[in-house]
Hints:
Blueprint: H1 2-11, H2 15-35, H3 45-54, H4 56-84, H5 89-111, H6 118-140, H7 146-168, H8 171-195
Amino acid sequence: MCVASAIAWVRDLPAAPLVCAAVNFTAAFVMAFVLAPATPIVADPAERFAYVQSHLLAWRLGWAVWIAAALSLLWFYAWWRGRIGAPYVPVVIAAIGFVADATAEFTLIYYLVTTATFAFDLTGVVANGLYTICGIWLTLAMRLNTRERIWTALMWAAGITLSVATLAGLYLLAAIATAVLFALFCPWCVYLAVKLR
């Protein structure tokens, strides 16, 4: 009886935040173990280009995972907005971020840009910045307890740090901020799935 109740409880959880958590966790894993050797965290452009040439399929699939993560993020934000009755504006802001993100990631997939920082700035500064603004807006539209306030403050501070560090060309700091952001954001999605179900 307890197992059946637990299965029913899990089945009733909303899909959007759980899918977002899973796909974004996968994207973070892919960044760390597949894409990072050809990002600006590696200073030598020739080394980055050589990595892409020898890992072309993994490079393209890796960025495709990031596009899926961005789509799942939009779905999650739309779900979150609906659950708390927030205005549509933050989700529109996130949708603009998605356009920037998809542009950057398709550029990386098809043109194999590893020497110019344009695509990395577009995804790290513009898209991430707009996603962070949306997340902060939705967070502020909720009533939070002290633990939730600390959690979200750290999470969105990491998002802001990621954008500022990328803009400043501090790619190691951007990588650390990315790790912190995803380590906090993926569990946040699962937490909201339960809290707002």
